[in-house]
Predict the structure.
Amino acid sequence: MEKTMLNIDIKEEQQKAQDEIRKQGLRVLVCSGTGCIANGALEVIEKFNQLGAEVSVLTNYDKMTIVPTGCHGFCEQGVLVLIPDMHTVYVKVHATDVEEIYESHIKNGKPVERLLYTDPKTDEKVTKSEDINFYAKQTRTALANCGHINAESIDESIAVDGYAALSKVIEENNPDAIIAEIEKSGLRGRGGGGFPTGRKWKFTAANRGGKSYVVCNGDEGDPGAFMDRSVMEGDPHKLLEGIAIAAFAIGADEAYIYVRAEYPLAIKRLRKAIVDAEERHILGDKIMGSDFNLSIHIKEGAGAFVCGEETALMASIEGERGMPRPKPPFPANKGLFGRPTLINNVETLANVPLIIRKGYEWFSSMGTETSKGTKTFALTGEVNNTGLIEVPMGTTLREIVFDIGGGIRNGKKFKAVQIGGPSGGCLTEEHLDLKMDYDNLIKAGAMVGSGGLVVMAEDTCIVEVARFFMNFTQNESCGKCVPCREGTKNMLKILEKIVAGKSEMADLDLLEELAVSVKEGSLCGLGKTAPNPVLSTLKYFRDEYHAHIKDKKCPAGVCTAMKKIVIVPELCKGCTKCARNCPVGAISGSLKEPHIIDQEKCIKCEICLKSCPFKAIVLE
Amino acid sequence: MVLIREKSYNRSMKESGMPTENQSKINFKKIDEIMASYDYKKANLIAILQKVQGLYTYLPEEAMTYIGTKVEDVSPATVYGVATFYAQFSLVPQGKYEIKLCDGTACHVRGSMPLLNAVKSKLGFTDEKTTTDDGLFSLTTVSCLGACGLAPVVVINGKVYPQMTADAIKIVLDTLLKEEK
């Protein structure tokens, strides 16, 4: 292969960008992800800017620059403010704290103690982010830049090796070598399926010659997952670079990024990133002076979970109802607008520039035998440190929940983890030491999925959670194939009966039978995986189903239909407080006489329970 | 088909408490401009509908029919099919304040249901009635806003309210109500 001469020297550009960053003086990074903006990040930035850029002679800087960054991942503790040169991270910062940070720390070198992170285990203050357990146990590669660069600046991206890999592949001009590199790295699809990425590229590249497309799947519909959102918001150029490398490898000149409409900030930042890159001739026509052209379009989704399925996603891009179709033909042969199409998930593509730049050995040195590299997880639910994390494949659940996550909140007991969203399953205490990778999780009846990891404590009702997921998939079933459309509907009906305390043991057999039929008979991934939450909870928590059905009891005390709130006559002083507070007038009784709750009227809102001064009202 | 569609449309209009004659005030010129900016292409149908919904807070039937006659290779039935497929599109007017309550897994586990009940009882919503009579508030439950670290969350006209409780959301709604008076 003959090398291509480029008219942009990316190393030189990088040097220039780094010089510019040095001129910024003291960099103060303020997290501006969706989470921190909700907590007031924009007000914090405004306040910093009002204070001006004057820095005291005590420091080595003649000025400071406020840098709005993407997500740091530690959403629970937002707004996060990082001062890398002072090795300090401040948490839960409000606009009212800004002046103190500025006066005390930035001007006079005295850190503001009260805004430092407190380790919940040792109760000690932690200054450096690398010393916070939440960060210390992570390996951030795909997310490496998220939170450390200005997400809206192409220069800051270039300064940290942005587009170096793209420049390398265009210069070397050997598309097959790129595919071989990706294949050797062992990278597998991060969207859920775990299909080997290199092989997918190879299939699509076999149809080189005519028009073909790259589609980036950013339709992160799994409730409880926000990994892709963070990449798109925090490091959009890395994603664009990954897409461009994929397009170069398979010979495509057009690409689509399909983003959920629920992610307005990601859409805005991606749009800006594309415009900036085109202006610099890093994307668009004649990229870096070569013959390689690539135009990238953003397609906004409109709220349909099934559009995460690749054939449904393509239908949606074409302006149709997002319904899947049978495969084959596979998108690699006949995809978008009938042309060969490569579809990869956001996180998968974000890994590509790193593999090209650092080599496949670097990537495959992380992870397990069958699953290489790192994986991002959205750690949420009843855990102390919620947020976005990235760990090598093969990390155990215990490390994630108890080390990074800091254990269960409010001292509750760990019960289960729901992984992989509505397609995934539950893992229990016995799986805490399981090495998490694609294959181990499938064996345990769950799946990596896109990486949503919802931690549940002892007071979460597993049957109710199964009902919740079934309700979700039933709502999102597109209705095309019968097993999914009718099967999920009837499974939901049974689960509703169980949580309402109106079911019999025979229902459980029917539920299982239906689950197997839906799994085997459905057309696409949505239906094929919809019964997983039911099957895995039946496997590990069958006794809880039995308690609901046989004893009409909810062991976790969640299912309202099985709750009974009563007043203990011996304790009731007849103060009438409960009767006055009851929103439905279900409590009656006269002053200084014990009151009674009308069980027919009671909606189990527990207001009386909480307000009784004598603790005379109890949950039976 | 048309009959069923008419019926369900009128029913939903009635339920929303909005007078049905409201639907005739459609600015066709504006819709034309939107379609033109997307080259009347079928692949841009979803984007066109999103823009039109941005104008009216919902998709008026006349607007959908009109789009169905103008955009290449689609019929009014196709437009209706697409509009009813995606959760983002509404066939009934939305309130001035659009409340989006997240019931994703993380929010659900951390108590989005009591939150939903609080909003419903505060504004008198039922499963069918989701817009207040004065057109001020409307409510939709969404499956995930990607702000799981702040669960449970409520979004009102794009502003995210993190870590909400039943009491806190009542205060938020009261503040908005006061502003309106």
